[in-house]
Structure formats: structure tokens, C-alpha cells
Specification:
The protein has eleven helices and eleven strands. By secondary structure, it is an alpha/beta fold. Pathway: Amino-acid biosynthesis; L-serine biosynthesis; L-serine from 3-phospho-D-glycerate: step 3/3.
């Protein structure tokens, strides 16, 4: 059985009818349906039985997705019993901002750094090289700017609800970030996350050095964390969901049982299994049996 989930801020009955018809044209049989309204967005789900694989279903419904309405075809492993793992990127996914840009604003270099970040997230620059270049502009800033930026962080809409729902159901929630541990660690503790990993900013005598300590958390490391944390918890990759927005998330999204692009760059939307193009992160809870 598969679950086909349509979601949008305004989900018309005609859209659900088109999804049903597209599935039936592949020979799939609809055996159940549901609908919910959070007050911010609506979700309609169809449970289907088919002799074809998931690619056939995704190809059938893909033309019905738009900027306002997304469609997720969820594989059986995420709909059954067993512990699941949710792993998320942080900047522009778990939180609304890019932390490096907030830090760079203290050096009067926000616009410059934002342009490099945008290019890196589109996959146009090597992530590690771009990170070192962006962090270099922070050299000389007082360490206290980190605490200041931490107070300005805003979670994405529905992020806490999503995390609480997964944790209360006994699942594993992790984040892995190309950002910085000095910002992530207190946030991870507040949210009771199971795992969290990010880069460490160099600090010497209360001043940022403009360097990153140790190997950079890049796209390969994000995938490695997904595999390591799922293996440690005894969770097969088929029962994992990865959520991200940039090119450095692509390997993680591809390795997970379901890869979700959240308000992502075009290349990431094209590669992911699901594209969420509105600001409500908690819609991800509808893609799995909790």
C-alpha cells in the first residue's frame, strides 16, 4: 500500500478528484481516504493498492503539483509500525534565517555573504570553500555576537509541533547543519533533539578567528550522519525522512526513504521526492505514520 498526500493552503475538491483519476489511470485502486484542515493548510490523503512501483505513481501525479499545491507519494515503510528517523537541515529549514548572514551583519558584510550563500545553496560553488570564505569575514568579531544572533533565531512555522509529534510517538529526530554548533547546541537542547551536528566556529580569547575548526559538515557528511544515526538506532533507511533546502542537502535527501525539499532551490526541488513550497514545516508529519 502507498499513501498519496496532497497539501496546500487551499486544496480544492477538484484537485483531489484529479489525483484520484490520475492514480486510477495507472491501474491503482483507492482503498481509503482522509482529509484534514489545520487552519493554515489542508491535507487530503489517498491510500492506494497497485501492482506498479512508486515511480509509476509519482509520474502520474507529478503534473498536478504546483507552487500552491504539493503531492507526496509515501512508500510503505513509512506507513507501517516501527521507529522512524526524521533528519533536517537547520538554516532556512528548521529555522527561518541563515545564521552566517546574521553573523556577517555584525561585520557589515551581510549582503556580500548572502550572495555567496545563495550561490552555494544552488550548487554553483563548492560548499566547503564557500563556507571558509564566508566565515573569514567574521574574523575579529567579539564572541558575544554569537549569543546575540542566538536570540534572533526564529523557528520555521510548525517546527516545534513537528518535532514534538515525532518524539512523543517514540521516533528519532536529528538535525545536521552546515551552520555552527555554538548556535545549534542550545537550540537542540531546547527542542530535545536526539542528535545534532554542525561546524564549530574558531574562537580565541573571546574573539572569532574567522575559521572553522575541523572538517566541514558538507553534503557528504550530512549523508554520513543520516546513515550512522539510523544504523545506531536500528532504523533501516527506508524508514527515514530527510528535509532540506540547499544543494548540500542533496545526498541526504537521496539516501533517505523520503527526501523532502522545503522551500528549496530549483535543483533541490527537482531531485527530491516531495517539494513543500509553503512555510509550514509541520506538514511533514502527514508523510509518515506516527
Amino acid at each position: 500500500m502507498y499513501r498519496v498526500v496532497s497539501f496546500g493552503t487551499r486544496l480544492e475538491d477538484s484537485h483531489s478528484a484529479k489525483v484520484r483519476r490520475a492514480l486510477q489511470e495507472t491501474g491503482a485502486v483507492v482503498v481509503g481516504e482522509s482529509r484534514s484542515d489545520s487552519g493554515r493548510y489542508q491535507v487530503a490523503g489517498l491510500t492506494v493498492s497497485t501492482d506498479h512501483g512508486i515511480d509509476t505513481l509519482r509520474t502520474a501525479v507529478a503534473p498536478l503539483a504546483s507552487d500552491g499545491t504539493g503531492i507526496a507519494v509515501v512508500p510503505p515503510a513509512l506507513l507501517g509500525e516501527g521507529t522512524k528517523l526524521l533528519i533536517m537541515d537547520v538554516d532556512s529549514t528548521l529555522i527561518k534565517q541563515e545564521v552566517i548572514e546574521l553573523l556577517a551583519a555584525h561585520a557589515g558584510r551581510e549582503a556580500e555573504v548572502a550572495a555567496v550563500t545563495e550561490s552555494a545553496m544552488r550548487g554553483e560553488l563548492d560548499f566547503a570553500q564557500s563556507l571558509h570564505a564566508r566565515v573569514a569575514v567574521l574574523a575579529g568579531l567579539a564572541e558575544g555576537v554569537i549569543e546575540d544572533v542566538g536570540t534572533r533565531i526564529e523557528l520555521s512555522e510548525g517546527a516545534e509541533h513537528l518535532i514534538e509529534a515525532f518524539l512523543e510517538a517514540g521516533h528519532v529526530v536529528a538535525v545536521v547543519s552546515g551552520g555552527f554548533s555554538q548556535i545549534l547546541e542550545p537550540l537542540a537542547a531546547r527542542l530535545n533533539l536526539t542528535h545534532a551536528k554542525a561546524n564549530e566556529l574558531g574562537v580565541d580569547a573571546g574573539t572569532l578567528t574567522g575559521s572553522v575548526i575541523g572538517p566541514v559538515v558538507d553534503r557528504a557528511e550530512k549523508e554520513r550522519c543520516l546513515r550512522a544515526w539510523s544504523e545506531a538506532a536500528g532504523i533501516p533507511l527506508e524508514r527515514t525522512i530527510a528535509v532540506g533546502d540547499g544543494a548540500n542537502d542533496l545526498d541526504m535527501l537521496a539516501a533517505a526513504g523520503l527526501g523532502v525539499a522545503f522551500n528549496a532551490k530549483p535543483a533541490v526541488r527537482a531531485a527530491a521526492d516531495v517539494a513543500v513550497n509553503f512555510p509550514y514545516l509541520d506538514v511533514v508529519r502527514h508523510f509518515v505514520r506516527l
